[in-house]
Amino acid sequence: QKEVEQNSGPLSVPEGAIASLNCTYSDRGSQSFFWYRQYSGKSPELIMFIYSNGDKEDGRFTAQLNKASQYVSLLIRDSQPSDSATYLCAVRGSNQAGTALIFGKGTTLSVSS
Amino acid sequence: EAEVAQSPRYKITEKSQAVAFWCDPISGHATLYWYRQILGQGPELLVQFQDESVVDDSQLPKDRFSAERLKGVDSTLKIQPAELGDSAMYLCASSEGVNYGYTFGSGTRLTVV
Fold first, then answer.
1. Could A97 and B43 be called an inter-chain contact, meaning their C-beta atoms sit closer than 8 Å?
2. How far is it, in rounded angstroms, from Cα B113 to Cα B110?
3. Residue A96 has pLDDT above 60, yes or no
4. How far apart are the C-alpha atoms of B23 and B3, rounded to whole Å?
5. Amino acid A31: pLDDT
6. pLDDT tops 60 at residue A98
7. Which of B44, B89, B101 sits opposite A49 (nearest CB)?
């Protein structure tokens, strides 16, 4: 059973701080990794994706990937109250049946002003 | 900005009744997914289509759930009969291809009473 694990939180940070969200995955053959943000009662929206080891930056967001450790993280710099949401890590599986994303349970982030 | 259309937004149905959800993906997106998200959990794949063909329905409870995408465009997910445990958010997503991230629709919140 391929799994994606996230700490459910809540992760609480003050406004302006760096929020660090972590994710591990079990399928060593996974090739692509995604972070989605989901506000309460809404559907997930794509924030970032990363395919290669290392860091990928987009504005205040940085995704980090370490395939050897099977670890993905998302850093949010200068956190804002509007960043308060659940962050879902998703991994594209490598099974032959399909290439659908496998999601973690999500980490709830709370940014206090 | 192109969107994935879903309807209805909310549905309340009685146990043992039939219920159907509709999804219209972004124009040109060949890959369509149906996910179920129980409150507090991550989305779980029900079925994946590539054009009109089912790629993966291994997690679809086929005794009560069915999905079709007859012309390779819009799709319908049906539950018959509905059970209390089916209460969840049903999310449709589409992507340009199997190696891309998804765009989710707004979802259908199903409550079975």
1. no
2. 10
3. no
4. 11
5. 85
6. no
7. B101
